[in-house]
Task: inverse folding
């Protein structure tokens, strides 16, 4: 059969269609996810806002108009719209725009790092519990139950309160807060996958436990766990800034949105709208992460 | 049912013990010698040793936990380093203040959440649905301590309608449901209500939408039942789950009100914790966390039991 033939037989045509369908299926999942995401304006806008914020805080030293630590007793608490200080100045006369840009670095770092660490640790433990079952599952899940017996804010405050103020302690406390919920999600997804036919097939064909987890389980559970973890970033940002707001996270004069909100609290009678600016930054970031996570969940068709 | 009851209560015991252990460990993970949580830093050496022996701090950790547990069970949470008073005496009045604030806030959040969620679930895809869902997302995403500040700016600083701080003349000790007291409660309660409102809205929306899609609702509609009649059926089906969410939210607010209490100087457990953190008053920190966590454990148990009792579909053996 020559390849130049313009009239393929029916069998050939059938094969070609099947091949095309298979190809469409194999790249179909992520292409489909992307296609659904593109049609979701809210998610796209949130992603763009977050991207813009991310770039702004990464390049803060280049684009910020002033020094974040350099204050002036003469220019304290200027209103929004002051010449040279578009967003006013804080209680020590430092430029608000500059400090908000620089402050985002720590706020974002403290909002994302604990979730990332908890994602790694929680997924490991949760997949282990779900895949191993039996006593291992019992031990891990019962330990998780104990941490569920604390409201999350209380647990974060308790641990970082006992350890003392500091960025590392705050991150440690927040990581501990987010490990149990991720374990629960990871365990339930893994338990669901473990009993599917292809896992049985892999086991029957002689694959070891490690191979099955690496090849067959992780690929199917990481997506849902990841989506769940992104929804935690919003909570983590609020909690991290909340810890700083209580004086448990970053320490002055370091710029960080929660801490700025705390030190500006006394200024609400003088320059109320300048004082609430850092909180607005936390709010915008948090709501964008929340909506982005919702969009991802829908686009990736994750249930729960 | 009866066996479920017994088993659920029995299961709460190891959880409560483990929670106690975590609270016990709080003082252990704190930097420095745990003895510093009992005696002031400038105490003479022989006094420190005496106290160490009296408190059993020279014994191994499990024994120490046992000793601590026995004291806690008898209601002895230790003494505050800052004031020298027993932790429980400060804690008891703070808890009633927090309970008042958290109860009002969770009721408010529950009512608003049910209205918004019910409307959104009934008219899915409509403008009302989108508005209610947006409010819910904003509610769970807003840093509530910041919302509290914004409300203070608007209603206290600009409009001068409501007080920005405190729990009114006398606090909860002589709390009365008069305007003088209630106006102190409005701003903190509204601020704190935002989170449960968002969560209850999401839950109720999902529940209502799910129930409305079920066949029995179609059947009811087919037999000619009015909207009001169907509404009663939907409420009956959604209530157990919605109440469970609300119960847990009350627990979250009890523990989570620390930030809002700090913003409004509300004299509850949050303010107590905040002061304890500032003064590194570990006994107060430990005692407050322990009591709040135990409250949460008990509430969890209660919610489970009430939900099982209310919902005949849940058959737990």
Result:
């Amino acid at each position: 059969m020559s390849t130049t033939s313009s009239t393929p037989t029916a069998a050939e045509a059938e094969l070609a269609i099947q091949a095309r369908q298979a190809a469409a299926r194999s790249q179909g999942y992520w292409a489909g996810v992307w296609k659904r995401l593109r049609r979701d304006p809210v998610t796209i806008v949130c992603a763009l806002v977050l991207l813009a914020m991310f770039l702004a805080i990464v390049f803060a030293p280049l684009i910020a108009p002033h020094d974040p630590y350099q204050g002036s007793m003469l220019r304290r608490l200027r209103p929004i719209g002051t010449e040279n200080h578009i967003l006013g100045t804080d209680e020590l006369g430092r430029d608000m725009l500059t400090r908000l840009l620089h402050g985002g670095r720590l706020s974002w770092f403290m909002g994302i790092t604990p979730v990332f660490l908890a994602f790694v640790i929680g997924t490991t433990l949760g997949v282990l519990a779900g895949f191993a079952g039996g006593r291992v599952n019992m031990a891990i899940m019962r330990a998780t139950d104990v941490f569920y017996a604390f409201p999350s804010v209380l647990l974060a405050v308790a641990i970082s309160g006992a350890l003392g103020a500091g960025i590392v302690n705050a991150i440690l406390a927040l990581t501990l807060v987010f490990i149990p919920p991720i374990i629960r999600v990871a365990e339930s997804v893994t338990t669901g996958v473990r009993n599917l036919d292809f896992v049985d097939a892999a086991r029957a064909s002689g694959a070891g436990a490690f191979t099955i987890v690496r090849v067959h389980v992780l690929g199917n559970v990481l997506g849902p766990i990841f989506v769940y973890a992104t929804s935690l970033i919003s909570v983590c940002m609020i909690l991290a800034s909340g810890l700083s707001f209580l004086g448990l996270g970053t320490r002055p004069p370091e710029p960080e949105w929660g801490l700025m909100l705390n030190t500006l609290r006394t200024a609400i009678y003088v320059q109320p709208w300048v004082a609430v600016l850092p909180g607005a930054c936390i709010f915008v970031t948090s709501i964008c992460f929340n909506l982005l996570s919702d969009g991802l969940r829908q686009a990736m068709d994750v249930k729960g | 049912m009866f066996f479920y009851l017994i088993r659920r209560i029995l299961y709460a015991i190891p959880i409560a013990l483990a929670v106690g252990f975590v609270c016990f460990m709080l003082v252990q993970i704190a930097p420095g010698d745990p003895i510093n949580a009992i005696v002031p830093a400038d105490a003479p050496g022989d006094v420190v040793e005496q106290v160490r022996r009296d408190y059993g701090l020279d014994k191994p950790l499990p024994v120490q936990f046992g000793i601590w547990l026995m004291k806690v069970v008898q209601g002895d949470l230790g003494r505050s380093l800052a004031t020298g008073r027993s932790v429980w005496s400060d804690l008891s009045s703070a808890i009633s203040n927090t309970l008042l604030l958290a109860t009002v806030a969770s009721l408010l959040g529950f009512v608003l959440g049910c209205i918004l969620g019910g409307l959104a679930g009934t008219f899915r895809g409509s403008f009302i649905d989108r508005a209610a869902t947006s409010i819910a997302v904003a509610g769970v995403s807003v840093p509530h301590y910041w919302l509290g500040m914004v409300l203070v700016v608007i209603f206290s600083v600009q409009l001068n309608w409501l007080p920005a701080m405190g729990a009114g003349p006398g606090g909860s000790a002589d709390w009365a449901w008069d305007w003088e007291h209630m106006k102190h409660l409005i701003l903190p309660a509204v601020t704190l209500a935002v989170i449960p409102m968002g969560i209850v809205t999401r839950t109720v929306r999902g529940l209502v939408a799910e129930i409305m899609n079920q066949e029995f609702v179609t059947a009811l509609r087919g037999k000619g039942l009015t909207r009001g009649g169907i509404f009663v059926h939907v409420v009956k089906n959604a209530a157990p789950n919605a109440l469970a969410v609300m119960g847990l939210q009350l627990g979250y607010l009890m523990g989570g009100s620390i930030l809002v209490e700090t913003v409004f100087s509300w004299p509850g457990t949050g303010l107590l914790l905040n002061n304890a953190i500032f003064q590194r008053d570990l006994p107060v920190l430990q005692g407050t966390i322990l009591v709040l966590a135990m409250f949460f454990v008990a509430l969890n148990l209660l919610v489970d039991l009430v939900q099982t009792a209310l919902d005949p579909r849940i058959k737990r053996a």
Summary: Chain B touches chain A through 52 residues (CB under 8 Å). Chain B has two domains: 1-74, 88-315. The CA atoms of residues 273 and 285 of chain B lie 6 Å apart.
